[in-house]
Amino acid sequence: MQKSAYIGLGLVVAVLLALPFVLPNSYYMDLAIRMAINAIIVIGLNLLIGFAGQISLGHAGFLGIGAYASAVLPTHFGWHPLLALGAGAAATGLIAAVVARPIFKLKGNYLAMATLGLGIIINIALRNEAQWTGGPDGMPVPAMALLGFELGSDKQWYWVVALLLAVSVWASLSLIDSPFGRALRALHGSEVASQVVGVNVVRYKVSIFVLSAVFASIMGSVTAHYVGFVTPNFADFFHSIELVTMVVVGGMASVFGSIVGAVLLTALPQALATFEGWETVVFGAVLMGCMIFLPKGLVPTLAARFGKGE
Question: Which residue ranges make up each domain of the chain?
């Protein structure tokens, strides 16, 4: 990794270590946990969209698979929560691998519509299989147990997701700096040129799609156990769009941009709650302003500006 990446990773770790000691109450601790969960999902999605240049408008579907695996398997079959989490991630990876090859033969708007359709199919399945999933009303999720201890308090959950976030940032930065990451960037630049220099375009597209889907599935399981209840809203279209928006606002092809985008767009709806009835309008105006004045995303734009001494 480059020196700047190590500095950024160190800053992230320092902030994660300090937060529990400065947050004033459980409300802010809960908000920090949700920010960290979203940040991990968005990091995985940014690897797909920002670095590989492949759009996904149905990514929340993979989140839903992981969440319901952690609800259905322990509840109906008595599986241990960790085993259910692993099974959900494996099933998600398998589904992503199967659908990726036909989907990634498409480009542009056709690719976007195909991924959107996949997310909708998963959402409909979760709503219709009421005998297993509870239908539109959802179902409770058993508590997560680690090494014989049940995770219950916000502080316990915070340290779990903080560790997952730190590992995700480190792993993503290492991946980007590896030959695999360089192949992804080449793929984003030009598929034809990538093929000319020997990059197996299909294999890399499928691999990064599967990796991104597994990121989402694992965090879907974590979210389900943390909240204690899961509904099909985990996998709905609007959640997918929210995740993509976090990628774009924070900055595509930027791991730290993913964190900033997730933090801002997780906190912003809470901050706008005082605008009774107008929060959606203000939220949209903020996003429009970001797109107009920061078209490359917040972190890349500011980095370029200050890097040039402007």
Answer: 3-234
DSSP annotation of 152: -
Residue 230's DSSP bridge partners are 139
Helix 237-250, helix 279-293: angle, nearest 10: 40
pLDDT above 50 (res 224): yes
Q: Kindly state the helix (H) or strand (E) to which residue 203 belongs, with its residue range.
A: helix 201-227
For 176-180, 253-257, 288-292, which range has the lowest pLDDT when averaged over its residues? 288-292
- What is the pTM assigned to this prediction? 0.94
Alpha-carbon torsion, ordered 190, 173, 61, 140, to 10 deg: 180
Reported as a single tens digit per residue, the pLDDT across 35-61 is: 999 999 999 999 999 999 999 999 999
The answer to whether 251 and 260 are in contact (CB under 8 A) is yes
Exposure string over 166-202, b if 16+ CB within 10 A, otherwise e:
bebbbebbebbeeeebebbebbbeebeebeeeebeee
Distances in Å between the alpha carbon of 282 and those of 110, 244, 303?
A: 31, 19, 26
Do the bridges between strand 145-146 and strand 139-140 make them parallel or antiparallel, or are there none, so unpaired? unpaired
Is the Cβ–Cβ distance between 251 and 301 less than 8 Å? yes
